[in-house]
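A reminder from the course coordinator: this example appears on the midterm review sheet, so study it carefully.

Given structure:
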């Protein structure tokens, strides 16, 4: 059996959590990530027939039974993942009953997965239906996107259009736009259900006055989605109080669609 700390999925998770903390997106123990893995990814690093312990997930997800996830731990600081991956991460498999997680590695200090795992699992179900290649759900607290939810309308079309107008690359990176939820109590199945519903039509879902959920095919893509939206929000927050003399027009965004072979969300461009 190979050392799991040398597994590509663990190395990438360590790098990503450290980078997110360095960006200021995951203060204290804020934020969480779940990475869907195939058995072929993990079987060289863990004995898939040895379950260390079982943990109720708090959500019935029969669609995910038998699937493997690398998940950040509850109460864990992203800055510490690089120093002790085994305590701060866990490799779980959703049991046949769809409601139990079988721990195969990690949470070595007796901990468990993030309290928002139900919300992650709900979003995984929806994103896999939309795109079977989407294997990551990432939640964090980027400051400028949060700030934007205090001063900008939460209308999804207008919120998306503002972000698209801030950086030329935005419509190329997230042509499906950004969906937005009003403030809701975090850590509940209710916000998970609402987020999963929004995940049907976009890979980015803003939680007003809280943070953002992103989904993508791998850690790099998902990080890049959030990074691009946050950069656009930063530009907006720097200029929102100033008269705007220039912008990226809808005609110019149509040119970007043609140049990069993307299609903006229906009805979002004039």
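Designed residues:
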């Amino acid at each position: 059996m190979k050392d799991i700390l040398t597994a590509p999925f663990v190395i990438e998770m360590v790098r990503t959590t450290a980078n997110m903390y360095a960006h200021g997106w995951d203060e204290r123990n804020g934020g969480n990530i779940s990475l869907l893995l195939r058995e072929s990814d993990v079987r060289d690093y863990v004995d898939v027939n040895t379950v260390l312990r079982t943990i109720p997930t708090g959500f019935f997800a029969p669609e995910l039974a038998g699937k493997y996830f690398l998940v950040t731990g509850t109460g864990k600081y992203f800055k510490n993942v690089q120093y002790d991956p085994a305590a701060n991460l866990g490799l779980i498999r959703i049991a046949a009953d769809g409601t139990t997680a079988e721990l195969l590695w990690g949470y070595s200090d007796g901990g468990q997965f993030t309290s928002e795992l139900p919300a992650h699992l709900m979003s995984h179900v929806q994103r896999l239906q939309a795109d079977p290649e989407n294997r990551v759900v990432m939640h964090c607290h980027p400051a400028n996107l949060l700030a934007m939810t205090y001063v900008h309308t939460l209308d999804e079309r207008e919120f998306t259009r503002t972000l698209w107008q801030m950086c030329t690359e935005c419509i190329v990176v997230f042509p499906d736009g950004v969906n937005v939820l009003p403030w809701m109590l975090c850590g509940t199945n209710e916000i998970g259900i609402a987020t999963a519903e929004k995940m049907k039509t976009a890979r980015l879902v803003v939680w007003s006055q809280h943070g953002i959920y992103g989904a993508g095919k791998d850690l790099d893509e998902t990080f890049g989605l959030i990074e691009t939206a946050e950069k656009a929000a930063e530009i907006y927050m720097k200029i929102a109080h100033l008269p705007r003399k220039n912008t990226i027009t809808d005609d110019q965004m149509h040119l970007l669609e043609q140049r990069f072979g993307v299609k903006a969300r229906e009805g979002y461009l004039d």
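The mean pLDDT is 97. The first strand starts at residue 32 and ends at 37.
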